[in-house]
Amino acid sequence: MFFFFSAADDIPHADEVRTLIKDIWDLRIAKLRKSIDIMVSQQEVYARLDDLSLMEINVIRPFLTQALDHMHNLRCHVAENPSNT
């Protein structure tokens, strides 16, 4: 997205293009968040991420790895202390 700021004069209708790309990005991230919400609510033990760009994976990676680690720790805690459930 950096090129929109450094080369905006070279892109016809740069503002419209910028808006369209941001709209597409927002839709893709919303779809990704919905998929992760479903995964967490169904207490899945792994995440399957199909048809994502590297940028999308890198954006969601920190959250997803932390969420899976927390879910694993909670499951281990419950398994070690079944009387707490």
TrEMBL record:
Record has Phosphoprotein as a keyword: no
Q: Quote the cellular component terms of the Gene Ontology held in the record.
A: GINS complex
Q: What residue stretches are annotated with the GINS subunit domain?
A: 9-74
Transmembrane feature ranges: none
Q: Which InterPro entries does the entry mention? A: GINS_A (IPR021151), GINS_bundle-like_dom_sf (IPR036224), GINS_Psf2 (IPR007257)
Q: Where in the cell is it found?
A: Nucleus
Q: Which CDD domains match?
A: GINS_A_psf2
**A biological process term (GO) from this entry:** DNA replication
Q: Which keywords does UniProt give here?
A: DNA replication, Nucleus
The record's similarity note reads: Belongs to the GINS2/PSF2 family.
Name by which UniProt lists this protein: GINS complex subunit 2
Source species, please? Answer: Desmophyllum pertusum
Q: What is the lineage of its organism?
A: Eukaryota, Metazoa, Cnidaria, Anthozoa, Hexacorallia
Which gene name does the record give?
GINS2_1
